[in-house]
TrEMBL record:
It holds the Pfam family Acyl-CoA_dh_M. This is Alkylation response protein AidB-like acyl-CoA dehydrogenase. It comes from Sinimarinibacterium flocculans. Its cofactor is FAD. Belongs to the acyl-CoA dehydrogenase family. Residues 6-88, 356-467 form the Acyl-CoA dehydrogenase/oxidase N-terminal domain. Signal peptide: none annotated. InterPro entries: Acyl-CoA_Oxase/DH_mid-dom, Acyl-CoA_Oxase/DH_mid-dom_sf, AcylCo_DH-like_C, AcylCo_DH/oxidase_C, AcylCoA_DH/ox_N, AcylCoA_DH/ox_N_sf, AcylCoA_DH/oxidase_NM_dom_sf. GO terms for molecular function: acyl-CoA dehydrogenase activity; flavin adenine dinucleotide binding.
Amino acid sequence: MNFELSEEQELMRDSFARFLDEQSSTVRVRAAMPSGFDAKMWREFAELGALSIRVPEDAGGLGLGLLDAALLMEEAGRTLVSGPLAETLVSARLLALLGGQDDLLSRVLAGQAVASIALHDIAQQPLQWIAGGAVAEAVIARKGDEVVLVAVGADDRRAEENLASTPLAEIALGSLPAISLGQGTQAVAQFAQAVEEWKLLIGAGLAGIGREALKLAAAYASQRKQFGQFIGQFQAISHPLADLLCEVDGGKFLVWRAIRNIADGAPEAGAAVSIAAWWNAEAAGRAVAQALHTFGGYGLTTEYDIFLYNLRAKAWPLVFGDPQLLLAEAGRRLYGSEKVALPEAGDCPIEFDLGDDARAIAAEINAFFEKNVTPQMREKFHYSWEGYNPEIHRKLAQAKLLFPGLPKEMGERGLAPYAKIAAMDAFEHQGYNTPAANVAQMVALIIHRFGSDELRKEVLSKLMAGEAIASLGYSEPGSGSDVFAAQCKATREPDGSWRIDGTKMFTSGANLASYVLMLCRTNPDVPKHKGLTMFIVPLKAEGVTIQPVYTFQDERTNITFYDGVRIPDSWRLGEVDGGVRTMSASLELEHGGGFSKVMRAMLKAAEQLCRELQRDGKPLIESTSAQSRLARSMANLWVSDVLAFRAQWTIAEKKPNHAFGPMAKLFSSEKFLTDARDLLDLTAPHSLSKRTGPAGFLNQCYRHAQGTTIYGGTSEVHRSMIAERALELPRTRA
């Protein structure tokens, strides 16, 4: 896996960024209005090679790849470049590939002439809106089975006022002089490739616009005070920005993923292009609207730059038409028979493959389940503690598959981060989510790091052998996600032992476990986060009472009461009043992933059910509406994947981490919930049933998804983390 650009790409991006910061400042962008074209900047930009990066070297260009062009477009979006950059990049490449227009190509590459592209067949739509049409002297268009170059005179490209003051024009291309650039299958395919490339480049540009708009909003919210506080401290301001940061970053990575798919020849590459374009149009539109709203009434004035981002984000993609057409297109490419010619990707160092070690551990886990698990066992598998099977648990421990990610010094495999991801995927594929194993692993790691010799001998050895499991005692009836508000008391006795009194809520698995990892108040006279200590408490100890709490998710949790429970000091973990440091190891594990694995299983179930159900005499999956909705769920799944991959890559490679784990968890849990709701609707009324099969699984997913926005910290907690760490907003929590 790799999210790092090559050294050459970093240098190229930095070079273009420096140029655009100076020559496409908002002062220059405003000066270029209302035409929307800065001719001087355009020529100087061309001198840097910006317009030639996708033109092959033998035609006088730089011959760079799609990712290079996408990086350029991100910077162009960030700086609102005044000119039809995406259209020029694809037009210049088309002129080079089709040939015969050397003079026009050389002038385009020098910034002395503008050529644009008609995105729809002029045989069917002779009158079209053309990006850059107000300044273009030529437009490349498809006309049936022919690709033509339409000459556009000054009288034919009349500029008019438009939403974002871009050089847009509606041109009657069908009635203007045209020459043939190519005819037949190959020429039409090259034109189709150019249109697909345009979608990716516009998507990248929109990601740049959205990211910069959020940055401007966060900066303003960190300076503007209202009611005696910075407005960025109000969660009503910070939380929507945090949500949109996940969507905007996800959009950028969807473009990168589509380029990687094209390079790999992946079957979903065509759909990935459509999804990347649709997603970024949607995400940027919402991001700039929320950013402008952050400025309040000032955002409506032309004194602040945010309105420029708002209008440009809507204008750039709409030249294609309704962005929802792109989602429908993705649906046809995923679930229909639509095929498309895709552009050459070029060099792409971005990599989402987990590697050979990951494939090996996944194969080993799959083989284990094939050998050791019966159909009767599978019938009882469940995503919660209800699916815990002591026999499988012990056998996994014996095969060193129970905790394969724990370090070798603990006697385990010490899998690399990417192999750990693959192992989790394999367990999900088998339907055995093993929260019992996940929590036992967490507790084992903490005991290994902070436990006494006695704890390691008495408890750790049993956890590692699969002979015992543990529960978590963090939440309390009055504290919820604010674990630092714990009031369950641990009082030191004269003999040095501890007496524990209090109540813990949501101690899931306590009815099955032997131990609970407990966070207790040991000092009420210091700030709440400083007076906590962590302990291991045997659940069979005198004074422990476990009462069931049932949820509508077919999952049992518990409320546990501790009345004078005595434990020796050797069962304390870490320093007295040092529980936050001890607990940080477990929070680190909880905040590193997401729910894309179960989202993938849910989508597969929905696809299966849509193939089985009939609507209007044909399978539901042939419906345009169903295809679009499944494609939207696929988009959410892909973004969940890439955000989780970034978080894991950052940890593995020890890169700066700007709340990437909370972003992955927040986004995936929220989209799991919205998709579960929508897919339940799509397949109704069959989805009401709990019968075995895809309908019952969708039913379960809807109920399961409710809790994922709460597990490991609520979405509100994660939004605050993202706002503070990634957007550098003032602290929103006490």
